[in-house]
Amino acid sequence: MSERKGAAAMRFLQLAAKRQSDRGYLERPVEREKLERCLEAARLAPSASNAQPWHFVVVDDPEVRSRLERETHGPFGAFNRFTRRVPVFAALVVEPGKAVTRLGGWLQGRNYGLIDAGIAAEHFCLQAAEQGLGTCMLGIFNERAVRRLLRVPRGRRVALLIAVGYPEAKQTRPKRRKSLEQIRSYNRYGKRP
Ligand SMILES: Cc1cc2nc3c(=O)[nH]c(=O)nc-3n(C[C@H](O)[C@H](O)[C@H](O)COP(=O)(O)O)c2cc1C
Known about the structure:
Helix content: 25-40%
Number of helices: 7
Largest sheet: 4 strands, antiparallel
Order of helices and strands: HHEHEHHEHEH
Number of strands: 4
Low-confidence stretches: none
Radius of gyration: 18 Å
Bound molecules: flavin mononucleotide
Structural class: alpha+beta
């Protein structure tokens, strides 16, 4: 690897390490231009047959935000208590996409829409981290209520909510991850290099 490429790879790894799930936010509002950059990064994400089956509903209106936040606490209000202080949410709606992709997904037994949404969500979060914003993807929320609140048309799922804001934390936590040895092999499942 050339020195320049090495530096770029390093910068990307640093960004990947910097992104973390932030659960404490400052009251500081998030500039729309920063959100637009996150959306642009998501727009550039790859997707099965380039279907781009996503729509982002950005919620920064205080009234809507507060009603949305109430739908993120799960059964018995036990989860995601931190969202009370999240200034902005982005709801990631999975669009029906192309018929050919859906057919391919059905034949393959894969939900490409959800896979695509996950990739777009990570692009969004990495761009947020690059701009000094914190994010947390939320998979626990009352999807029915969120769909109703945001007027998501019938037949479309809300794959994720992404909390966005300026993080309270100044430091990046060390990542708790499996080791490379545990997660990879070459040429055959489980075969060590
Ligand atoms: C699909 C998905 C759903 C998640 N749902 C929640 C959630 O509802 N609440 C929450 O606090 N964190 C949620 N997370 C964040 C994970 O807990 C977090 O990514 C993981 O613990 C790794 O930590 P890190 O993001 O700080 O590196 C979710 C992450 C993903 C990818």
